[in-house]
Amino acid sequence: MTKLFANTGVIALSMLRRDRIRIPVWIISITLFVVPIAALLPDLYTTSVERQVMAESMRNPAITFMLGPGYGLDNYTDGAMMAHFMLLYSALIVAIMSILLVARHTREDEDAGRIEMVRSLPVGLLSNLTAAFLVLFIANIVLSVLVGFGLYALGFETMDLRGSLIYGASMGAVGVFFAALTCLFAQLASSNLAVLGYSFGFLIVAYIVRGIGDMGYEVLSLITPLGLILRTEVYVNDYWWPVLACLAISIIIFALSLYLYSIRDLGAGFISTKPGRKNASGFLSSPLGLALRLQRTSIIAWMLGMFVLGAAYGSILGDLEGFLDTSGMILQMIPEAEGMNVTERFITMLITILTILGAIPILLFILRLNSEESDGRTGHLLARAVSRNSILGSYTFIAIIAAPIIQLMSVFGLWSAAIFVMEDVISLNTLIKAALVHLPAMWIMVGLAVFLIGFVPRLTGLVWVYLGYSFFIVYLGEMLQLPDWMAKSTPFGHIPQVPIDDVNLLTLAILMFIAIFLIAAGFIGYNKRDIR
Prior knowledge:
The chain is mainly alpha-helical.
């Protein structure tokens, strides 16, 4: 038995050394994301009256779908407010960290041939997978401790040590769960891209199912890790059992992963890849055709996913107006407009949120080129009669064209669900206009990714940091009363909120110019730098 895990510690130390910068950056960034927000809350809502007004705002179904059920709303303390605002999104970020890092040390290493080299050494059959899970387990423990003691160190009366540690442990438990789940998908899928697709797809489905469950179907929430950890009722009742249950499920999933790993051929997956055609089509002979073929499944999956996400948000619009009319704080979050009801005003904010979420697949499409280069495949293309501009242009073209398609899919999903739950549905043309006006902001994100690929490909991760910052500012900026300049520091903060605002063509033209400039600069850098 011990031979199966021989030198697991050595491999784990090797992984820690490879990620000696990556893991600390993740941990520190998440900690600095959570703790300072907790420090701001007592200054934002200083009286019990203000907190209770906020508590009433939290009872509407839209907020429940987005943030989860509120606990302690009858006595809405700073701690209860912090857990309600931030625990779910903190857990989402930790899940993303675990997915990316586990995939990096499992299927990505296997695709690149590194695990085959490791297995040629005196190591156990299960050592590499165990080491990857162990590294993420340790990373999540460190993160849990830092966040827990960081929140307690603020010294707020309603954020005691027990609640703070449960908050941190809840985040860590979700991280461990998705680490184990990614280990499982690494056995089922036959490529790193498929592993990431399955893992992130599960995360999105878990968020949606959790949202539906929190609105009245408790069982649905309890079968998802995100819904389970919200039952800790942090800073209210401080239950440990959801954390322990989540960890127990994670161990079972990881044990199944080990079994499948032990019987799987290296380089294969239990979900077999569909056999290709004997002869490639003429379309595949071009860089654009190849890029589309490589990402075809991902593109289709994301389009369907954005349609479902839009439909999920559209399904909560039926009873929204009655709740928003009695929620003073929420009314302050959405823009004012004469002659429009609060639901129509709320939809403008919803479109912006869907746009930022829709930027995720757009960036994945363009950043696939960076992955191809890291794996050494771009060099094979350039050894033939293929120019750098045609390669970079193909991926850039896919990202640019995908942006309006993704927007339309989200809007169609939103509208198709809304027509069944709303008496007076906002017109489809208005929704399409509100969505397409965000395209310049999405293209700026594409331009930033192209710029980084062209000059500093190792720092392309910064584009995710900027997108996360944009989401945080747009989503919680008004609620946390953040300064206006922070909203203007992201392109999404300059987009007019149609139909409330008039379309400012000059502003959109400036954003388009910035996007074009970043893309052009990226092409120049890509043509001059060395290919890794």
